[in-house]
Design goal:
six-stranded antiparallel β-sheet; alpha+beta; single chain; globular; Carbohydrate binding domain-containing protein; eight-stranded parallel β-sheet; disordered N terminus; FN3_dom; 25% strand; Ig-like_fold
Length: 990
């Protein structure tokens, strides 16, 4: 809709009286006003000229009412250029002898004759700086229209709040950077009229005044005289005014269809098909009736709604209405009815801690490999013997929530206040224990739970200790056996000696849960529910049950549809993609399978989106503090920005409040294994790309929008991506960050990760990329993980203890959130291959069981503090890197600048040296840091600095502080007016 402006004040003094007074004060006498001629105006018509030189308006509107008639609709009639410094508009007055008039710029700035309005007659009339006269100021001059340009620029997809026009009339000179300011004409549009002199066109580029430019990919825009629009890199000449008043939108959206309600205990997941509208649906209203609490209306932005905490054994009815931008409501949908069951046992849902995630260093565990608290839920799976795990008495599902709860004090004793755990949903795969093969996304895997140690119990236990739980989540794919409740394939099976280990006889009534043993087969990994030798109705798999012509290694015949794969037609195209990735930096990386046991979900499909949003709402309701997003790069940014990220924010806000939503930490894995700022030059496959909102509008269809976005951003290239100063100090000053263009997803710092073979490389590469993230202070930083070590090494980090200490010293003081993979504090499994699948025992890999190092007891009164310990855990806590990370956490926790601060290297000599500052909420924390080597800091504030490591005190009076090299792995943290030494000396920090 067009932007509405306030009506100017009504008629007061007459314009004639005011003019007479002005002329009298100036003692000016002039000739009588000329009579209008046929060349200037006809009877009942007025041509009004308005002087704009002293106004500097980019657009001019005449808002008027013929005598005895009605006022025009605000802002009125747009005036056109008449000649230099004059705009004009000719109006038909009918039988009226004059008009009341005011003028405005279309954006709320008015000239209404000091509240009296202008009283104008007929013929040619000039209004110049409050003075009314009868003349044609442009008589004898050539019309100016071909020599001026009115430019409208759309920045709605860029999020700019300031727009400048930097231009060059053809044959003339460029304006001084950044150019001339454009005025906001209406929502999303800025405008400016410029004088071209004798030129008939101009070259132009646009910027936000803060160094971000749109110069048409380096070509600049060519804009002709007259009125033009510039939108999404397209110039439209002789364009209609995009801010002209529009007819109000009165058409309601269509009624939502396909409303379905699924019940689980006292929870209902409601989903429906997207409604349609002539201008676009902006949301939905869900109305629930039933129960004793009366009707409830909830606004949602997606096409799924999870309703939890309902009354037991109660009938509920739901209807859905669609809403458009004008507030029009569709008719209510058909009713969906649901009757709840019994309330599940266990504690009520929890509440996230809701604090700034940058305060919380992260400890990352593979839950099934960390610590075993309940051996009754241990399971080996179909590859238990083949892998060699059986011989080691080491089932792949060994650790559990009980074991993790039992050792939260160990993690707290190290100083960590956030725990990142691998996915918790029920998995289904031949060799899966880490959680990335989701089968039932709505169910917690029972191999992780125990009596008194449910997932909810883990969340609540962590929160009771002041620790957060970050849940690993997967939106990109399901297990190869599909996703229960969405789609599960039926496979062809010949139960000969080749496949008898896999295809079990179907047992009616038995349901796979990964834990329960099926009595006849004796397996917990029973697959009889998936197997059939008869072609099922509705089968889409090609050549069902016919030989492929290939043989297995054992010499058995291979049949079509015997094993799930993307190209057989086994998975419906609407719900799953049907191809293999061919180019990991190509468009197909977001729309094809990664691996044979990772069935790629069609996340642009509303039904898939509903399934995933509804599933993860459950865990938000349980009170998790954030999501680590697996394989985020394999879903288009448009889908994240349109669907999944808003749904997360909406649910957290709805259940836990706006404060919790602001600090609900989402960080994505956007894997890039090259030492590039932008991954092989492909912006769509680079981590920082996912931290930004979209820069333009795309098609309403998500699949089409994904392709449009991919093509547009690839064409824009790396040089035209948005930049940010959010991580950087302004000199020595902290400034409020601008998160207006933040997508809602932070990321793992892949570039630093890839370069942690040497801390200095990691530091300089990270620093080089920081202007391309929305806010790099939220980057998750680690050396190695459950997948890779630095430089895409397939082994756990083996650079040496001194190098580990140096890496940690950098991570704990530089921007970002330090993260440690379980066991790295004792160099656990260093040099061992991280993952070899079922081809070797887990005990020989980087995913080995860690619980043996944690046996015993300990007393932990606070973070980084252990009062006493006995058994194997006492030995573990005595390791040099344990002492190192404990003290690093103490120092970081005591110095706000190291948690939340921006940084700079300006005026600093030294390799890994920087200054950081955070100012906010009554806190002003300023720190000078150098890692391993010496440094000299110049231009810093004068005052007393105390080193948090050594306790050294320095008084700076000339803006310079020189620091000697503390030694590899050691560091110095000089804090202005700081507390002094924090903690006790250890093997590296001293």
């Amino acid at each position: 809709m067009g932007r509405r402006h306030r009506q100017p004040p009504g008629r007061g003094w007459t314009a004639g009286a005011l003019v007479a007074g002005l002329l009298g004060l100036a003692a000016v006498t002039g000739p009588p006003d000329p009579e209008p001629t046929a060349a200037t105006a006809t009877a009942g018509e007025a041509t009004v000229f308005y002087y704009t030189k002293t106004r500097n308006w980019s657009s001019t509107y005449l808002h008027y009412a013929p005598d005895g008639g009605s006022w025009t609709t605000v802002p009125g009639t747009r005036m056109e250029s008449a000649c230099t410094d004059w705009m004009k508009a000719t109006v038909d007055l009918g039988s009226a002898a004059g008009l009341q008039a005011t003028f405005n710029n279309g954006s709320g700035t008015w000239d209404n004759n000091a509240g009296s309005n202008y009283d104008l007659g007929t013929g040619s009339i000039t209004v110049k700086d409050g003075v009314v006269a009868h003349s044609d100021p442009c008589a004898g001059s050539e019309p100016e229209t071909p020599h001026s340009a009115t430019v409208y620029y759309s920045a709605r997809s860029l999020g700019w709040t300031t727009v400048n026009l930097h231009y060059q009339p053809s044959g003339g000179s460029w304006t001084t950077v950044p150019g001339v300011g454009m005025a906001e004409a209406c929502a999303g549009w800025w405008s400016r009229t410029v004088d071209l002199g004798s030129a008939t066109s101009l070259k132009a580029a646009f910027n936000n005044g803060n160094g971000v430019w749109d110069n048409d990919n380096g070509a600049d825009y060519t804009i002709p005289a007259g009125t033009s629009t510039v939108e999404n890199n397209t110039v439209t000449a002789e364009a209609d005014d995009p801010c002209a008043a529009q007819e109000p939108d009165t058409q309601a959206p269509s009624s939502p269809e396909g409303v379905r309600a699924a019940v689980s205990g006292t929870s209902v997941v409601l989903s429906w098909e997207p409604a349609s509208d002539d201008t676009g649906v902006t949301g939905y209203q869900v109305t629930r009736t039933g129960g004793t609490k009366g009707a409830m209306v909830t606004d949602v932005s997606s096409t799924v709604f999870s309703d939890t905490g309902l009354e037991e054994e109660t009938r509920y009815t739901y209807t859905v209405r669609a809403v458009d931008a004008a507030g029009n409501l569709s008719p209510a949908s058909a009713q969906a009815k649901a009757t709840t069951g019994s309330a599940p046992g266990g504690p009520a849902t929890g509440t996230p801690l809701g604090t700034d995630p940058r305060k919380d260093p992260i400890y990352f565990v593979l839950t099934a490999r960390f610590n075993d608290g309940d051996s009754s839920n241990n399971r080996g799976g179909s590859q238990h013997v083949k892998s060699g795990n059986a011989a080691n008495d080491d089932p792949m599902f060994r650790g559990d929530f009980k074991g993790l709860v039992d050792k939260l004090d160990y993690i707290k004793g190290l100083g960590f206040s956030a725990v990142w755990i691998t996915p918790v949903v029920l998995n289904r795969s031949d060799y899966d224990y880490h959680g990335y093969h989701g089968y039932d996304f709505y169910k917690v895997d029972p191999r992780l739970e125990s009596a008194g140690a449910s997932y909810q119990d883990l969340i609540d236990a962590a929160h009771a200790k002041g620790m957060k739980i970050y849940q690993d989540v997967v939106y990109n794919h399901s297990s190869r056996w599909g996703a229960k409740g969405l789609f599960t394939p039926t496979v062809y099976g010949v139960r000969d000696s080749q496949w008898s280990w896999y295809y079990d006889e179907r047992q009616p009534g038995f349901e796979y849960d990964g834990l329960t043993v099926e009595p006849k087969s004796g397996k917990s990994f029973y697959n009889g529910d998936l197997w059939s030798t008869a072609e099922p109705s509705g089968n889409t798999c090609v050549n069902w049950g016919t030989p492929t012509g290939a043989k297995s290694p054992e010499g058995y015949t291979i049949y079509n549809c015997q094993w799930p794969n993307p190209t057989s037609g086994m998975f419906p195209k609407a719900l799953y993609h049907n191809c293999w990735i061919g180019n990991w930096e190509g468009e197909d990386s977001r729309s094809c399978w990664l691996h044979e046991d990772l069935a790629d979900l069609n996340t642009e499909n509303a039904q898939v989106q509903n399934y995933l949003i509804g599933a993860y709402d459950k865990y938000i309701d349980m009170g998790v503090d954030g999501f680590r997003v697996d394989t985020a790069v394999h879903i288009p940014r448009t889908t994240w920005n349109r669907r999944f990220l808003p749904a997360i924010q909406e649910r957290v806000t709805q259940r836990h409040g706006a404060g919790a939503a602001k600090n609900f930490f989402v960080f994505g894995e956007v894997a890039a294994f090259v030492n590039d700022k932008w991954n092989r030059g492909s912006v769509n496959h680079s981590a920082q790309f996912y931290t930004w909102k979209e820069r333009r509008e795309y098609s309403a269809d998500d699949a089409t929008a994904a392709l449009e976005m991919y093509d547009y951003e690839q064409q824009q290239g790396t040089g035209s991506q948005p930049v940010s100063a959010n991580a950087f100090l302004d000199g020595n000053a902290y400034h409020a960050p601008d998160h207006s263009r933040f997508s809602g997803m932070n990321v793992i710092d892949m570039r630093m990760h890839m370069n942690f073979g040497d801390a200095s490389n990691a530091f300089h590469n990270g620093k080089d990329s920081d202007d391309s993230y929305n806010d790099a202070t939220y980057n998750v930083v680690y050396v190695d993980s459950h997948d890779y070590g630095p430089n895409k090494s397939s082994e756990r980090y083996t650079g040496g203890t001194d190098a580990w200490a140096e890496n940690m010293s950098l991570m704990w003081t530089f921007r970002g959130i330090p993260t440690l993979y379980y066991g790295s504090e004792i160099e656990f499994q260093k040099g061992k291959k991280i993952d070899c699948g079922p081809s070797c025992p887990l005990a020989t890999t980087g995913r080995a069981y860690y619980g043996d190092h944690l046996a015993g007891s300990l007393s932990v009164p606070d973070f980084s503090k252990v009062d006493s310990a006995s058994g194997a855990v006492a030995t573990t806590l005595g390791k040099p890197l344990v002492k190192h990370v404990q003290r690093l956490n103490q120092i970081r926790r005591a110095v706000p600048a190291l948690q939340l601060g921006q940084y700079s290297t300006a005026g600093i000599s030294g390799d890994m040296a920087f200054k950081r500052r955070y100012t906010g909420g009554g806190t002003d924390s300023f720190a000078l840091v150098t890692v391993s080597g010496g440094a000299t800091f110049t231009g810093v504030p004068n005052g007393t600095y105390r080193d948090a490591v050594s306790g050294d005190v320095r008084t700076v009076s000339g803006g310079t502080l020189a620091v000697a090299a503390p030694g590899k792995g050691n560091l110095r943290v000089y804090v202005l007016d700081g507390p002094g030494k924090i903690g006790t000396d250890g093997p590296y920090l001293k």
